[in-house]
Amino acid sequence: MSSMATVVTMQPQAMPTAANARPMWQTGLMDCFTDWSVCCCGLFCFPCLACTVAGDMNECCLCGTSVAMRTMYRTRYNIPGSILGDHFSVLCCPLCSLCQLKRDIDYRKAQRTFWSVLPAPRGPRAPSQQAHYLPPLNITFSCRCCSPACEPACVN
Predict the structure, then answer these.
(1) What share of residues in the chain are helix, strand, coil (percent, to 5)?
(2) What is the dihedral angle through the alpha carbons of 138, 144, 145, 149, rounded to the nearest 10 degrees?
(3) pLDDT by position in tens, the chain (length 156)
(4) If 54 and its partner were Cys, which of 38, 59, 95, 114 is the partner (CB 3.0–4.6 Å)?
């Protein structure tokens, strides 16, 4: 009786799948020219692009270029990074940072994976877990931006 031993010449490797793949930015920080329209909008009318991004995120125009906006987006999609990294991205190259955020939003919209607000939790909650919200303030703000897309996001 002869037996043949199986010789392993190559170890199995983990293949990235949707279950274990880490989300990343869709484009790099310096990939401004992958979408010319976003690049030109940011270059020639930076406030317009900032208001468009803020509007996409259901935030006020003044928040479009903030570190908080970038951090909120990054944590929402589990993109690796830190607040310090977000701070230096916005501080050192605000145009590239804002363009990257807008390109990522556009790609996620095209893939139908973008949401501007977090989905509400489903199912009943115990009274101790009920969220407590403050009533909205009656403050109106009118943006002086040249973008008509900005107006719905800024006027409350």
Answers:
(1) 45, 0, 55
(2) 40
(3) 556 666 656 555 544 445 556 678 888 888 888 888 998 998 999 999 999 999 888 888 877 788 989 998 998 889 999 999 999 999 999 999 999 999 999 999 988 888 766 555 555 555 554 445 445 545 444 445 555 555 555 444
(4) 59
AA letter at 111 = Q
Q: Which of 72, 125, 67, 75 is nearest to 98 (CA)?
A: 67
Is the residue at 70 inside a domain?
Answer: yes
Domain assignment present for residue 72? The answer is yes
67: part of which helix (H) or strand (E)?
helix 67-76
User: What is the total count of domains within the chain?
Assistant: 1
Classify residue 47: in a domain, yes or no.
no
Structural domain of residue 65, as residue ranges?
60-111
